[in-house]
Design goal:
- With about 130 residues, the protein is an all-alpha fold.
- Helix content is about 65%, strand content about 0%.
- It has seven helices and no strands.
- Helix 3 packs antiparallel against helix 5.
- The protein starts with a helix and ends in a 5-residue tail after the last helix.
């Protein structure tokens, strides 16, 4: 949860810097700064992510799900120590670059069923969050 808050803060900062963010979004999320996430916020998010990872690995069922997912994605089991080292290597600049990458391309929308009006969905969501396209 905290890592998503940090990423959302960075997305808003990047959007504000590019002129794509209106002041309305800042009113909705007063804790989001125009400068993006602070090193303290990134540290807290990383600590929470590591804690969640280690607590989840206490469950055999989660361990089996994790093993299956890792083998599907990378073809091998990644040890918890390696994941923690990777989490520790993340910097505020990495998060900033990731947030900028998310804004570099339009969002993909997947829909099933009645889809009349779906072409207005993306711009409507952006407008609701104060992002100018």
């Amino acid at each position: 949860h905290a890592l998503f808050d940090v990423m959302a803060t960075e997305i808003e900062a990047v959007a504000a810097g590019s002129g794509r963010l209106s002041s309305r979004s800042a009113m909705r999320r007063p804790y989001a700064s125009q400068e993006g996430a602070t090193p303290l916020e990134v540290r807290r998010a990383k600590n929470q992510l590591k804690s969640n990872l280690l607590m989840n690995l206490e469950s055999r069922m989660v361990q089996l799900e994790d093993l299956g997912r890792q083998i599907q994605v990378s073809g091998r089991k990644v040890p918890a120590e390696a994941m923690i080292q990777h989490i520790e290597s993340i910097t505020p600049d990495d998060i900033r670059k990731g947030a900028a990458g998310l804004l570099a391309n339009p969002a993909t929308v997947l829909a099933q069923g009645y889809i009349d009006g779906i072409s207005q969905f993306g711009p409507q969501v952006a407008a609701n969050h104060g992002i100018r396209l």
